[in-house]
Specification:
The complex is a heterodimer of chains A (287) and B (335).
Chain A lengths: L7 E10 L6 E11 L4 E5 L6 H9 L6 E6 L2 E2 L9 E2 L11 H12 L6 H14 L15 H14 L4 E5 L7 H18 L2 E6 L2 H7 L2 E5 L7 E6 L8 H5 L2 H16 L9 H5 L1 H12 L1
Parallel strand pairs in A: 3-8, 3-9, 6-7, 7-8
Antiparallel strand pairs in A: 1-2, 1-4, 4-5, 9-10
Chain B lengths: L1 H28 L2 H22 L3 E2 L2 E2 L3 H39 L16 H32 L1 H14 L4 H15 L9 H27 L3 H10 L3 H39 L4 H11 L4 H30 L9
Antiparallel strand pairs in B: 1-2
Classes of the chains: A alpha/beta (287), B mainly alpha (335).
Chain lengths: 287, 335
């Protein structure tokens, strides 16, 4: 009876933010685990704390209770093994595309790779996201979708154990988004990267994930339901849109989000009243 | 013949048309507004100035108008060259004298004296410029690192903030007597690098150059985009690399805003300090002319006023140019 340890375990994670009116509990008892090579989405209404979960896994926030264990080691600070793709792309505007990716590579592979190996590795990753043609451009000279591709390349180039994506397609137009989603799925399949994707887009979650974690509304948000998506890969969006199975999954997520509202316990009416206030607070924290 | 002359005239015609076209093109691309309007502004100001000046009588004669100022600046220039000639003459005579002495007796002791003539207006300008730049440089060398420390660490900021708030509003002129005494007491060497008076003025400038740079650098560093800081945390950049590659480039615009404010106040304070302490420089020139009380004094002071303004303007442009070369954002509109 050996207990098989999961690759990434999030156990009983809770976090409180100090406010002038006493501590505000944003997450409580968040519990889930992820296998190696899995593509997992976390979906929920805005302000439900899904980005907070990601930030705790990244080590950018410290959980007040519970903990995160990645590959047998507890997470207590940020590190390149949990590289993040930010919604705002977060490229340094004063560095070229190449330099932005190299910044991480030089640090992570210090003493392991020679100068020419580093150069090859950066170029390889830019080729992977089809951005090798713009290596010497500054971020201000390329489009939003391209910037996000570079953000993904910077993340991949650090060879993270798990790639954390915080609404990476949120600021993109629909066509660019579809394009990038396909690229990410293809790369993930090629490299067998473990991915956690934060999203509020139901179609995106169903299309891309092996597993969808649906978050209940806060405050004191927790995991509502976990939905396994058993669709064959590679997934093709046009074909899937006609598939009953796809639509069934889609309907299940929608029903969670809009009918059951993702609210686990409604008894506490007082709490509900503070939701708006808490939302503002949390977005402040995240911003 | 006729065809020949025809063709040549048509050629001339063509070229003059081309020339006219080119001139028109130059005129049309020329930004009239940015040249003509400033010129109009200056001309109107000069007219109003001379009108007003002709109505003001002081005990030192009429208030100088643009014309007197122009002629007086010519005089100052002439005086400068006359003084230089005298200086050259002094050194020439000294050399001849010494050569004669040596010819008579090779072991003779020769004396080389420095020329101690009056400093001209332009000497004073140079002295003031050197002083302000030195003071500004010293202040910036302290203010930028401390500003970065304040911006990076809340603890350092909280520790420094009361001191900054208390010392910032103090006029550096209040420090002047203290600086004078401290410099006289501590700085003494046989062949000093700097004059004492130079150091006193420069430190006074430095004291007021400190604050705008420090505060703006701290604000700039503290307001670097949180996402960029998170990227740096995820990559685990060491502090030195973090400062060099993330913090400094991101806060360059704010640092330069601070530097420009610093240099501008430094230049203003320097003139006042030189007047008060009688240290060489433009301030001393103004004060000496005032004490002199000749009929030309007011015009000469007015020349100094205009020159002080022009130099202040030029200093600001130099910093702006420096910012343009250092900054990564070449598209940014700097004003």
């Amino acid at each position: 009876m050996s207990i098989k340890r999961k690759f990434l375990e999030i156990s009983k994670v809770g976090i409180e933010f100090p406010t002038p009116n006493g501590p505000f509990c944003a997450l409580k008892d968040v519990d889930f685990s992820i296998n190696e090579g899995e593509f997992v989405s976390i979906i929920g209404h805005s302000g439900c704390g899904k980005s907070t979960v990601l930030n705790i896994i990244a080590g950018l926030y410290q959980a007040t209770s519970g903990g995160v264990i990645l590959d047998g080691k507890e997470v207590d600070e940020p590190g390149p093994d949990r590289a993040v793709v930010f919604q705002s792309h977060a490229l340094m505007p004063w560095l070229t595309v190449y330099e932005n990716v190299a910044l991480g590579v030089e640090q992570v592979f210090k003493g392991q790779k020679s100068k020419s190996e580093i150069k090859d590795w950066v170029e390889h990753n830019l080729r992977l996201v089809k951005m090798d043609h713009a290596m010497d451009k500054k971020p201000s000279e390329i489009s939003g979708g391209m910037k996000q591709r570079v953000g993904i390349a910077r993340c991949l180039a650090m060879q993270p154990k798990v790639m954390l994506m915080d609404e990476p397609f949120g600021a993109l137009d629909a066509l660019t988004r579809a394009n990038l989603q396909d690229s990410v799925m293809q790369i993930q399949k090629e490299l067998n990267t473990t991915v956690i994707l934060i999203t509020h887009d139901v179609d995106e979650a169903v299309l891309m994930s092996d597993k969808i974690i649906m978050m209940a509304n806060g405050p004191a948000a927790k995991v509502g339901e976990i939905l396994d998506i058993n669709l064959d890969r590679p997934r093709e969006r046009v074909a899937l849109s006609k598939s009953d199975q796809f639509n069934h999954y889609r309907q299940q997520v929608l029903s969670f989000l809009y009918e059951r509202k993702g609210v686990v316990d409604i008894e506490d009416e007082k709490r509900k009243r503070t939701i708006d206030e808490a939302d503002a607070l949390e977005t402040d924290k995240i911003a | 013949m006729s065809t020949n002359s025809n063709s040549s005239s048509s050629f001339q015609h063509g070229s003059s048309e081309q020339l006219a076209g080119r001139v028109m093109k130059v005129i049309s691309t020329f930004d009239f507004k940015s040249v003509v309007f400033p010129v109009i502004g200056v001309i109107v100001f000069c007219l109003l100035w001379s009108l007003a000046a002709s109505r003001i009588d002081t005990s030192l004669g009429q208030f100088p108008g643009p014309a007197q100022v122009l002629s007086q600046s010519q005089t100052l220039l002439d005086e400068h060259f006359a003084e230089r000639e005298k200086e050259q003459g002094f050194y020439d005579r000294q050399e001849v004298r010494n050569a004669k002495k040596l010819a008579k007796n090779p072991d003779a002791e020769i004396k080389i004296r420095k020329y101690t003539g009056k400093e001209t207006f332009f000497d004073q300008v140079i002295t003031s410029l050197k002083t302000v730049l030195f003071g500004f440089l010293v202040a910036s060398l302290f203010a930028i690192p401390f500003g970065i420390a304040c911006g990076l660490s809340d603890g350092v900021y909280k520790a420094m903030n009361p001191l900054i708030q208390i010392f910032k509003p103090v006029s550096p002129l209040a420090w002047l007597p203290l600086i004078t005494m401290v410099v006289s007491a501590t700085y003494s060497s046989e062949s000093p690098w700097f004059e004492k008076s130079f150091l006193v003025s420069a430190f006074t400038v430095a004291l007021c150059c400190l604050w705008p740079t420090l505060i703006n650098t701290a604000v700039g560093v503290a307001n670097v985009d949180k996402d960029l800081l998170n990227v740096s945390r995820v990559i685990k950049l060491p502090t030195s690399v973090h400062i060099r590659r993330i913090i400094l480039p991101a806060s360059i615009p704010m640092i330069f805003t601070g530097l420009r404010l610093s240099l501008a106040t430094g230049w203003m304070v320097l003139i006042a300090a030189e007047m008060l302490s009688q240290n060489p420089g433009l301030g001393k020139f103004v004060w000496d002319e005032f004490q002199n009380g000749s009929s030309n004094s007011l015009s000469r002071i007015m020349v100094a006023v205009v020159v002080i303004g022009l130099i202040g303007f030029a200093l600001d442009r130099v910093i702006l140019l420096l910012q343009k070369t250092v900054s990564w954002d070449k598209q940014a509109v700097l004003r």
